[in-house]
Structure formats: structure tokens, C-alpha cells
Automatic annotation (TrEMBL):
Subunit text: Monomer.
Family statement: Belongs to the class-I aminoacyl-tRNA synthetase family. Glutamate--tRNA ligase type 1 subfamily.
InterPro entries on file: aa-tRNA-synth_I_cd-bd, aa-tRNA-synth_I_codon-bd_sub2, aa-tRNA-synth_I_CS, aa_tRNA-synth_I_cd-bd_sf, Glu-tRNA-ligase_bac/mito, Glu/Gln-tRNA-synth, Glu/Gln-tRNA-synth_Ib_cat-dom, GluQ/Sye
Organism: Candidatus Falkowbacteria bacterium CG1_02_41_21
UniProt-recorded name of the protein: Glutamate--tRNA ligase
Reactions catalysed: tRNA(Glu) + L-glutamate + ATP = L-glutamyl-tRNA(Glu) + AMP + diphosphate
Main location: cytoplasm
Motif range ('HIGH' region): 10-20
Free-text function comment from the UniProt entry: Catalyzes the attachment of glutamate to tRNA(Glu) in a two-step reaction: glutamate is first activated by ATP to form Glu-AMP and then transferred to the acceptor end of tRNA(Glu).
Entries under SUPFAM superfamilies matching the protein: An anticodon-binding domain of class I aminoacyl-tRNA synthetases, Nucleotidylyl transferase
Binding residues for ATP: 254
Pfam family, one: Anticodon_2
Length: 480
RNA sequence: GGCCUCUUCGUCUAACGGUUAGGACACAUGGUUCUCAACCAUGCAACAGGAGUUCGACUCUCCUAGAGGCUACCA
């Protein structure tokens, strides 16, 4: 047993962004790989963005993909509570410490003043930054204004000069100029801390050893380090994962399509595919293997395989993985997975397994099941009789071939009505009469499916059953 | 505007400073096949540009360019 501890710390905003899934996944894998603990902490300090049931939903999706936690709001733990709005008194205590050390200060500037200030700065091509107007107020003045009921925030007092060096596990040392840092807000005017403050306090208190987060946090890293220094705490290790980009290289956002795990779940992507696909965005194994189950990743994952450059989300590769994992399913599993996507939910289980078997090799996602197997459930096939004609055959030849096959199939006993038996009978007939396979099978297949492209005639006939198959052949024969 | 990060096939990515720059997806062709899919085989395709360091640079340094991120009392 060691004391490695990592956390996933999302804001409960409703859905799980695909980028967050990967952040959670990497964190989970590192924790598992190092034999440590994985903790869920809910960062709900922005009440404006609060969404009902968000935590339950989040937990559902994460458990769907197979990620679970050792500690968190749903199961407690030695560092409870794990929801930031339940920890407000803790932050009060720590901000007071900073105030006492003169490393933070009250700021009474109004939102309007700040906005005006920023507008002026940008107009003058200056970096928009708080002008530190309240940084050096006297203690008496601060007390007086608080007593008068003035609203205030608490800001971090940054050093004015010098260099701040930080270390990222993937990129090495990065240095920032203190003069580029803003005195950012630690406690908002409603007394609730910002991410920047709550996050650091909680990571320390919860004894997090490796902070894993997205690349978008790199710019605030020096401020975080300064906060650790202000408290006299030893910072954990930091790993900033490169971002996932959209097809055009921009930020993955709602506007260009699906960005939430729930979207993919609804469309019929399997958790195995999502996990396998996501883990390969910025990570590779030593031996170049690319097919990985979550279970295998638990031991195979290695932080050394992480890269530092952003990755474009390629849905075609996701489709490949999804098709691959669909093909790995047993018919029973696949039937269960497909059932919610069927318009007719009352389909018999064994029948459904046969139907699903026809589509398995052709599916990219579960929702494809409808389009792929519509022809099976169709009351009456609707297709042009010209489709029945194979290559140079005439319409008469096609009908004659179909009649011959009908004759053979009529004689097949119900008990023998299966793919293997039908295939053996029909192929034997064709061979012994020295005919071409295509001249018979194409018309038969079209008669049974009404489609240009479809699964083979024997498996379709098997699924359809004797009566339905013969009806469909009869329909083909009656076509003009 | 400022700061930070990133840069190998279309995409995801390999390559102790020495390889015909490898694999996967996609694509193409062939095989298998009545069609499609699946499967198998083959092929196509990349070191952003420029200086250095070095006997030798995809790999180290610097510059340029491009891309992305951050620049809120959002996370």
C-alpha cells in the first residue's frame, strides 16, 4: 500500500465532455497503475451553472464506461465532504490565514469599474489586467468599508517581479514572469471561493499527490504554485494533458456536433470503443498495440507513453473501434444492446439474436440496427423487378431460376430449415446442374431482401423462416 | 495585444544522434465472394521553414511561421 492519490474534479454542468472523459480516464489509469486511490470531488463553486441531478448523471456515465472511485460524495471517505459547496467554512479558515499573512487582500472594485478598466486597456492595446487599485488599502480603511456594508472580493497578492518556475511532468520546466500574473480573485463577493482557490486548498487537504487536468490550466499553474508557497505547502506533481481538438483543429465545442459522452452513448457507441479510442488520443503503449480493454489498460498504462501535443478527434477511428467491439459481442449480448434501438420492442429474443447476427459485421454503431434489418421486418418488400436481374440474365431466366429454387426450398422440412442445410441443398443443385452460382443466388437474395446490398440469401432465409421466405420468392415471381 | 504550449503520412502516433522514417484508422487495388460487410494481402502517404551544434540531426539549441490554449467575482 502506498499513499498515491489522484482525483477527478469536474463541475456538475450536466453532461460529461469527451475531453473530461479522457482526463478522468487518464487519472483513473494512473491511479490504478500506481496502486493508488482515485477520488471524485465535485467543484460546484459556480452556482450559476448548477444543474439538477448532474452528479448522479455524471456517476452514471462514468460507471457505464467502467470508471469508479475509492472516495467521493456518493460513497464518502476520510476527507469528506467531497462537494465544495459543503466545504465553505474550510475555505473561510484558509483565506483568513492568507489575509493575516498579507498574501491576499480585500478588493472593493465594482464589476462596472473593472469592465470599464478592461475596455480602456484593450482599446490601448494593453493586456487587460486588474490594476491593483485596492492592493494597498490600509487595514483601517478596509475595516471601515466592510463595516459600511460594501461588497468585496478577496484577491491573491502576487509578487510584482521575479520569475516563477513550475514543473509539468510531460513538458518539464516552464517559467513565467511574475509581472504577467494578475491578482486574481480567490473569494467571490458571495463568499464562495473560485476554482483557483478551492481547488488548491482541497488538493492539499485531500492529500492529492498527482494533479491531472487539461492543458487549459497551464496558464494558471504559476498562480497555483504561488498559493502553495503562500501556505507553505509542498505542491503535488502536475500533469497537464494535451487538448482534444475538433476536425478543423479548433476547440471541441457543442456547436460542431457531439462532444458529450452521453451523445455517443445514445447513438449506440460502446464504452469499450470510447475508452479505447480516447486512451489513444495522446497515449501509446510501448509495443504499439492499439486494441485495449479497460482492464488491460489498468496494467499496461504508463505515464511515459503520454504525449504533449494536442490531438484531433477522428470519428472515423472511433467508428472503427466501435465496429470492432460490436463484432466481439455474442449474439445474446448484441441483441440486448440493440433492443432499445428497435422500433418494435416486443421482438422475440431468439428471433432477435438471429436478426442481429445478420447485421453484426455491418454495424458501426448500435443504432444502425434499424436500417440494416428493416427488410426483415417489412410487411411487403418494395423494390423494382429489374433489381432481380443478375448480369446478362433475362427476366425469364431469372424467374425460371427462382422457380427451381422455390421447388427445392418447398421440399425442405421445417426441422432442416437452417442456413447450413439450405446452403448445402442449393449449392449442390447448382453444381450438379452445372449452373453458375450467381445466376441463382443473386435473384434469390434480392427476392428475400429487396436490396442491392445485404447479407447472404441462406442466412436471411434461415432468419425469415420457411413460410416467409417462400412468400417473398412468390412475390418476386409475380413481379412484372 | 500579452503570456503559455504544441508542430512526423489526411487523422492518431512510433523511431538510445546512425532505420529503405515503423504501426493503426481512412483511402486504393487484389484475394475470398451472388452483392455489401467482415476477413486476408499489397499499395498510397509525413519529419513546418531557416540557421547552428555534430563525422552524422526527426531527435539537441536558437530564430521564423503556423496552430491551439489562457487572458472573468466560469471551471
Amino acid at each position: 500500500m502506498n499513499n498515491i492519490r489522484l482525483r477527478f474534479a469536474p463541475s456538475p454542468t450536466g453532461f460529461l465532455h469527451i475531453g473530461n472523459l479522457r482526463t478522468a480516464l487518464f487519472g483513473y489509469l494512473i491511479a490504478q497503475n500506481l496502486g493508488g486511490k482515485f477520488i471524485l470531488r465535485i467543484e460546484d463553486t459556480d452556482q450559476k451553472r448548477e444543474v439538477n441531478d448532474a452528479v448522479d448523471k455524471l456517476l452514471n456515465v462514468l460507471s457505464w464506461v467502467g470508471i469508479d472511485f475509492d472516495e467521493g460524495p456518493h460513497r464518502g471517505g476520510p476527507f469528506a465532504p467531497y462537494t465544495q459547496t459543503e466545504r465553505l467554512d474550510i475555505y473561510q479558515k484558509y483565506i483568513q490565514e492568507l489575509l493575516d499573512k498579507d498574501l491576499a487582500y480585500h478588493c472593493f472594485c465594482s464589476a462596472e469599474r473593472l469592465e470599464e478598466m478592461r475596455e480602456k486597456q484593450t482599446a490601448n492595446k494593453l493586456a487587460p489586467r486588474y490594476d491593483r487599485a485596492c492592493r494597498d488599502l490600509t487595514r483601517e480603511e478596509v475595516e471601515k468599508r466592510i463595516a459600511q456594508g460594501e461588497k468585496y472580493v478577496i484577491r491573491q497578492k502576487m509578487p510584482l517581479t521575479g520569475e516563477i518556475k513550475v514543473y509539468d511532468e510531460l513538458r518539464g520546466e516552464i517559467s513565467f514572469q511574475a509581472s504577467d500574473l494578475e491578482d486574481h480573485v480567490l473569494i467571490k463577493s458571495d463568499g464562495v471561493p473560485t476554482y483557483q482557490f478551492a481547488n488548491i486548498v482541497d488538493d492539499h487537504l485531500m492529500e492529492i499527490t498527482h494533479v491531472t487536468r487539461g492543458d487549459e490550466w497551464l496558464p494558471s499553474y504559476p498562480k497555483n504554485i504561488l498559493l502553495y508557497q503562500a501556505f507553505g505547502w509542498t505542491p503535488p506533481k502536475f500533469i497537464h494533458f494535451p487538448l482534444i481538438l475538433n476536425q478543423t483543429g479548433g476547440k471541441l465545442s457543442k456547436r460542431q456536433g457531439d462532444v458529450f459522452v452521453e451523445d455517443y452513448q445514445a447513438k449506440g457507441y460502446l464504452p469499450e470503443a470510447l475508452i479505447n479510442f480516447c486512451v489513444l488520443l495522446g497515449w501509446h503503449s510501448k509495443d504499439g498495440k492499439e486494441i485495449y480493454s479497460l482492464k488491460e489498460l489498468l496494467t499496461a498504462f504508463d505515464i511515459k507513453g503520454l504525449g504533449s501535443s494536442p490531438a484531433i478527434f477522428d470519428s472515423e477511428k472511433l467508428d472503427f473501434f466501435n465496429g470492432y467491439y460490436i463484432r466481439q459481442k455474442t449474439l445474446t449480448e448484441l441483441a440486448d444492446l440493440c433492443r432499445p434501438y428497435l422500433s418494435d420492442i416486443s421482438v422475440d429474443q431468439t428471433y432477435l439474436e438471429k436478426v442481429v447476427g445478420l447485421a453484426q459485421d455491418r454495424m458501426k454503431k448500435l443504432s444502425d440496427i434499424n436500417e440494416l434489418t428493416d427488410f426483415i421486418f417489412a410487411e411487403k418488400l418494395d423494390y423494382d423487378s429489374s433489381l432481380l436481374i443478375w448480369k446478362a440474365l433475362t427476366a425469364e431466366e431469372v424467374k425460371s431460376n427462382l422457380s427451381e429454387l422455390k421447388g427445392i426450398m418447398e421440399k425442405v422440412e421445417d426441422i432442416n430449415w437452417n442456413k447450413t442445410y439450405l446452403e448445402a441443398q442449393i449449392i449442390e443443385y447448382i453444381k450438379t446442374n452445372d449452373k453458375k452460382v450467381g445466376d441463382y443466388l443473386w435473384p434469390l437474395r434480392v427476392a428475400l431482401t429487396g436490396l442491392k446490398n445485404s447479407p447472404g440469401p441462406f442466412e436471411v432465409a434461415d432468419t425469415l423462416g420457411k413460410e416467409q421466405s417462400l412468400n417473398r420468392i412468390e412475390l418476386a415471381l409475380s413481379k412484372k
